[in-house]
Amino acid sequence: MTGSQWLKPIDIRRNVGIETKSREEDVEPLSPGAQLFHTPQFNCCIISHAGCKTKIDVELVKEGIKRTMIKHPRVSSKLVFDQKKGDKPIGWVRTKVNVDDHIIVPDLDPNMDSPEQFLEDYVSNMTKTPMDLSKPLWEIHLLNIKTKDANAIAIFKIHHSIGDGTSIMSHVLACTRQSANPNAIPTLPTDKKNKKRVMRPSSSLGLVSLLYGMMFLFKMVWNTLIDVPLFIASTLWLKDTKTPVKGGLATGTAPKRFVYRTISLDDIKLVKRALDTINDVLLGMTQAGLSYYLNRKYGEIKGDKKAKGNNLPKNIRLRSTVLVNLRSPSTIEALAERMASDVEGRWNWGNAIGYVILPFHIAIRDDPLDYIRYAKATIDKKKCSLEVPCTYAIAMVLLKIIGLPVVATLSHRLLSNATLSFSNLVGPQEEISFYGHPMVFMAPTVYGHPQALTFHFQSYMDKMTFVIAVDQDVIPDPHKLCDDIEESLRLAKKAVIDKKMNKS
Fold it and tell me: Which residues pair with 458 in a beta bridge?
């Protein structure tokens, strides 16, 4: 996204007339993260599917957005450009939002033959159209078509410079209410295990606790001394193995295709109780499904279409990047309260991003639970490391010394050298409604970064929806990869049940 591709930059002087000076003072500078997402290498947008139980009432949605969503300054601000620097975006300025400009309602045949394929193609085509930078950087497409999962679909498209994924999803959830109680905001599950750790009695303190703390500190320093040099090496020269899922030079700008699948959260929790956390299970499932998929692909290359046996090359280096926002996001409660009031003030918002590089263990294993055990070992090491704040600090120092273009190039190289991205978001425990429309699933993802494969997991009620975003020129059969991930959960669940039966 270069300056010549921007549709209509805002000239502060031209738009504000004689009040130029006072309006310039109202311009909020772009954060470093927001600046990064407006460089040519990172024109990233968040895409989220929201399935509805009922047909969407367009006017009802518009009225709801006017009452709540656009009260957030990022949603009601447009970019300001510096014409002296080649129309470089430099900040945000509040503007009056015309909701009709942001709601797209295509005229569709409700009796179309293949609504699922139409939806895939429609959302893929959305990635070919750049955002109109002359207005606030979001849009919602309302599709009144019935799929196997929902009676209507809303598609959110939000530029990543507005905020990180967690903050944006929190803002969207703050605009929803519980279906059973229209006055109540959604509730998210809490980490009971962490609460128990925090509430340890004081009698546990002493020599043992001191030794434990020293060991933890030593492990953290040791892991950080390993992780940070590997991060630097990955930025400069260390590349993943070229596999059938590794993108190429054109991946960042190539159109993406998004496929999603909904699985049972109860099944995931069953496996989790036998091991440790849901994150461990999700990462293990992904490693297992990707191993099955690659084994089949390498088998096809060898002429073994049924992929019997182990066809994987030895020592595959395959890693995932995970972007972590260091800024504590506003809670759903706080966002809902702010939108319900007209009080001006500072919103806790923005992109303060650090990186984590997760190695994937690609192999064919006899025990399906071994994938999750390897994932747990990886996550435990990353939890006991300062990789995220260190990578953020390195980026900020480089930003001051060598400037944004070089930092953007290095960040692009880091993501290009890794194979995929991975994330997991926690959703509401109860059914919620988006301006009176009960939702059946949520499926957020992202595109615009230089990777051919992205995994996103989103929990909601008793379900887990995972979305796979792919460059179809690299991965032409993403539905098979979905099948492999579903199969990995089925095998892990079966292994847990079988072990319980053997013990009994």
Answer: 425, 465
Q: Is 471:244 a contact under the CB 8 Å cutoff?
A: no
Residue 465: which region, alpha, beta or left (left: phi > 0; alpha: psi -120 to 50)?
A: beta
Question: Which H or E run includes 410?
Answer: helix 404-417
Coil/strand/helix, residue 359: strand
- Can you tell me the distance from the alpha carbon of 42 to that of 166, in angstroms, rounded to the nearest whole number? 18
User: Residues near 101 by Cβ (< 8 Å), separated by ≥ 6?
Assistant: 135
CA gap 483, 488 in Å, rounded: 9
Judge whether 325 and 316 are in contact, CB under 8 Å. Answer: no
Cα→Cα distances 437→66, 412, 419, 440, Å: 16, 39, 38, 10
The CA-based angle 268-271-274, given to 5 degrees, is 150
Distance CA 436, CA 101 (A): 22
Output the CA–CA distances (angstroms, integers) from residue 45 to 98, 168, 227, 392, 397, in the order listed.
21, 11, 28, 21, 26
- Determine the residue type at 300: E
Q: Residue 503's pLDDT band (boundaries 50, 70, 90)? A: low
160 catalytically annotated: yes
Rounded Cα distance between 70 and 162, Å, is 13
% residues pLDDT > 90 (the chain): 58
Please provide the distance, in angstroms rounded to a whole number, between the alpha carbons at the two ends of the chain: 61
Q: Is the pLDDT of residue 83 over 60?
A: yes
Q: Answer whether 6's CB lies under 8 Å from 87's CB.
A: yes
DSSP assignments along 58-120, one per residue: HHHHHHHHHHTGGGSTTTTEEEEEEGGGTSEEEEEEE----GGGTEE-----TT-S-HHHHHH
- The confidence score (pLDDT) of residue 348 equals 60
Catalytic residue among 160, 361, 412, 449: 160
188: how many CB neighbours lie within 10 A of its CB?
Answer: 15
E strands, 344-483, are: 353-360, 420-425, 432-434, 437-447, 453-460, 463-471
Query: DSSP assignment of 20-36, as one string?
Result: HHHHHHTPEEPPHHHHH
**Structural contact between residues 284 and 374, judged by C-beta atoms closer than 8 angstroms:** yes
In what side-by-side order are the strands of the sheet with 28-29?
Answer: 28-29, 88-94, 77-82
- Contact predicate 23/16, CB 8 Å: yes
- Residues 324, 164: Cα–Cα separation, whole Å: 9
Residues 88 and 81: beta-carbon distance below 8 Å: yes
Rounded CA-CA distance 99/413 in Å is 38
The total of other beta-carbon atoms located within 10 Å of residue 27's CB is 17
% of the chain with per-residue pLDDT over 70: 87
pTM, rounded to two decimals: 0.88
Cα angle 365, 367, 373; round to 5: 90
